[in-house]
Specification:
By secondary structure, the protein is α/β, with parallel strands linked by helices. It folds into two domains: about 5-75 and about 100-185 and about 275-355, FAD/NAD(P)-binding domain, CATH 3.50.50; about 185-270, 2-Layer Sandwich (D-Amino Acid Oxidase, Chain A, domain 2). Helices cover about 35% and strands about 25% of the residues. It binds P-hydroxybenzoic acid. P-hydroxybenzoic acid binds near residues 50, 51 and 299.
């Protein structure tokens, strides 16, 4: 049976925040796109993801007309606390670099984008199967099977692979035309949602001789927290009491006590650093996790994806307005400039805050020296603040 042919200008593979944001920005300029996504809308909306948005990400959501719910339902954070040796040290973003971040879960970013695309009549197809991309150097096409079983051939001028860390699209770039950069870490995060009040106004990134812990938040009554664990850890071996005992041994002390409560959800998050470069091959552009992943310690994953999309949108918009591919040709190098800054920052935060395997006395004392050199210097704190709140985009 012949495939049902659908034509669009930009075919976007992946309907997470990156794909939907690109589709939205293009639509505002009258550029058509079709988004195909393997998961159902409900499945994406129910996945627990990280929660920190840079000011640039917030501006794009608000000024880009997606939603201002981040300003009403999100929480502005003007700093974080670095805790080590039993003491907390505030990194005051507002004072150091004049910026803030927002605590607003990625899940809500997705919900806002999905609702906006739906309200604007965007062509977003969830729950498709068998996606395959063809003819990257001719007339690019995406083949897929729609949720009702129709076999579709989507013809487009460009294809964007925004299909996440297990990207199908990135594998379509021949080996001779791409390079992979990898770094594995010998630990993972044990993440929980707990029913408890907030323990602190701001996020706490804690280094301790028993390992790293991060105290984040979700609402007045539900909190998000993580502790460093072995990548092979099984959540079934962890009772609530064992989980709280672990957190206590890493963050409590000197008058600070974590507020505890029933654990609602527990997962082990494995992480690694990864980049595929370049981020363009002929008519295919990669964006977000499809091209790079970072460990979550720098809170950069979603922000990097949105930054890619902003730069890619500028290139596509310029192409459709002027016919020139000059800005599209610079997409990969402009995006990678930020990607590598974020790779470094995420690696640095991870190595500075986690306890390495088999750490000896020297490793431990050196790490405290590093942490002290950051918190005791305005320059050190400002470097962290600038990176955490987000750099300006490369021209
Ligand atoms: C989160 O709230 O889930 C969160 C916050 C900061 C991070 C990572 C995750 O660095």
């Amino acid at each position: 049976m012949a495939r049902h042919v659908v034509r669009t200008q930009v075919a976007i593979v992946g309907g997470g925040p990156a794909g939907l944001m690109l589709s939205h920005l293009l639509a505002r300029e009258g550029i058509e796109s079709t988004v195909v996504e393997l998961r159902s809308r409900q499945e994406i909306a129910e996945t627990v993801r990280a929660g920190i948005l840079e000011h640039g990400t917030v501006n794009l959501l608000v000024d880009g007309g997606v939603s201002d719910r981040v300003l009403t339902d999100g929480d502005r954070h003007d700093g974080i606390e670095l805790r080590f040796n039993g003491e907390s040290h505030r990194i005051d973003f507002h004072d150091l670099v004049g910026e803030s971040v927002w605590l607003y879960p990625q899940t809500d970013v997705f919900k806002d984008l999905a609702a906006r695309r739906e309200a604007d009549g965007g062509d977003v197809r969830y729950g498709v199967t068998d996606t395959a991309i063809h003819d990257l150097d001719g007339d690019p096409r995406v083949w897929f099977t729609d949720v009702d079983g129709t076999e579709v051939e989507l013809r487009a001028e460009f294809i964007v692979g925004a299909d996440g860390s297990r990207s199908h699209c990135r594998g379509q770039i021949p080996e001779a035309h791409r390079k992979w950069y990898f770094h594995e870490y010998p630990f993972a995060w044990f993440g929980i949602l707990a029913e408890a009040p907030r323990s602190s106004e701001e996020l706490i990134y804690a280094n301790s001789e028993n390992g790293f812990a991060l105290i984040s938040q979700r609402t007045e009554t539900v909190q998000r927290m993580y502790f460093q664990c072995d990548p092979g850890e099984d959540v079934n071996n962890w009772s609530d009491e064992r989980i709280w005992e672990t957190f206590r041994s890493r963050v409590n002390g000197n008058g600070f006590e974590l507020k505890e409560g029933p654990v609602l959800d527990k997962t082990v998050l494995k992480f690694r650093s990864f980049v595929q470069a370049p981020m363009r091959h002929k008519k295919l552009f990669l964006a977000g996790d499809a091209a790079h992943t970072v460990p979550p310690t720098g809170a950069k994953g979603l922000n990097l994806a949105i930054a890619d999309v902003r730069v890619l949108f500028e290139g596509l918009d310029s192409y459709y307005k002027t016919g020139s591919e000059a800005l599209l040709d610079r997409y990969s190098s402009r995006a990678l400039d930020r990607v590598w800054k974020a790779q470094h920052f995420s690696y640095w935060m991870t190595s500075m805050l986690h306890t390495p395997e088999g750490a000896d006395d020297f490793a431990r004392a050196r790490q405290l020296g590093e942490l002290n050199s950051v918190v005791s210097s305005r320059h050190g704190r400002a470097y962290l603040a600038e990176a955490y709140t987000g750099w300006p985009s490369a021209r």
